[in-house]
Amino acid sequence: MICVLLPASITISILHCQAQEYTFDLDKIEKRSFHLGGYAEINPILFGLDRDAAFYKLRFYDRDEGSTIEKYDATLQLDGSYERGITRAFVRTNINLNHTYEGWSGETTLYEGFLSLKPSPSLTLEMGKKTLKWGKGYAWNYFLGIRYLTAGETTYIFEYYHNDTGFTESEIKDYFFFIDKGYDTYISTGNDDLLRRASGMAKGRYGTINPMRNYLYLRVNQKEPFDILYFTPALTWIFNVDDQSFSLSPEFLYTGFTNLELRLKGAILTGRNFSDYGEKQNDYRLELRARYYF
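The structure assignment produced for this chain is given below.
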């Protein structure tokens, strides 16, 4: 008879492995039929007003708001989906509440809501409202642009935007002259008819963010500079080619907290009289955005 003696530690280890049972949690591997997610966001903004600008005169001619005003935004976006067999239902809603110098306001918008049927891997039928992405735009279009990423993870985005229906430099100047005339009339007589007409025009194309024809857009961001984890600074420049006015916006993004995104952003607006950015109601703005994902 031949006997083999094993060390006690090895014998115990073998016996332990033989006695151990393999278990797993079905909840962790099974795909859930129902999903609910989204984010909640708060966004306080401070505006530094330009009291000589056309849009300041248009909006505050009958009131004195001082040198700054505040705005507070709160947003709740919810994504919900349900899947069973070949059927999938999806809903995305956005609830926005904000407070400005005019008081409180709110709006609920259905971004997406559709029913999808997939009877085979190669066939999908959808019905409802769905957001579709066309092209690879970053600022506008839906334009001519390039995106370049360096080995050091610096991203450059440069675009040229042209809008055939935008206003020419002379057309936008005429509008600003019209506001000035209305303001002078109001100061001297108290009659605000011209300003009311100008305000109605501002609700159309004159009041859009980029009302003129030609703009350049440049954005540069650097991921984790100086090895600062979860930190991304960026700089955005929008230049009006027609009148040489522009906005310059630095921002700082930090994502070091679980499911929480913090963004601090500023903007400086510069331009001569009767120019696009020179006649905006504010000279600068500063905002903080805190977004929590769930």
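Interim note for the steering committee: The chain has five helices and twelve strands. Residues 237 and 248 are 5 Å apart (CA to CA).
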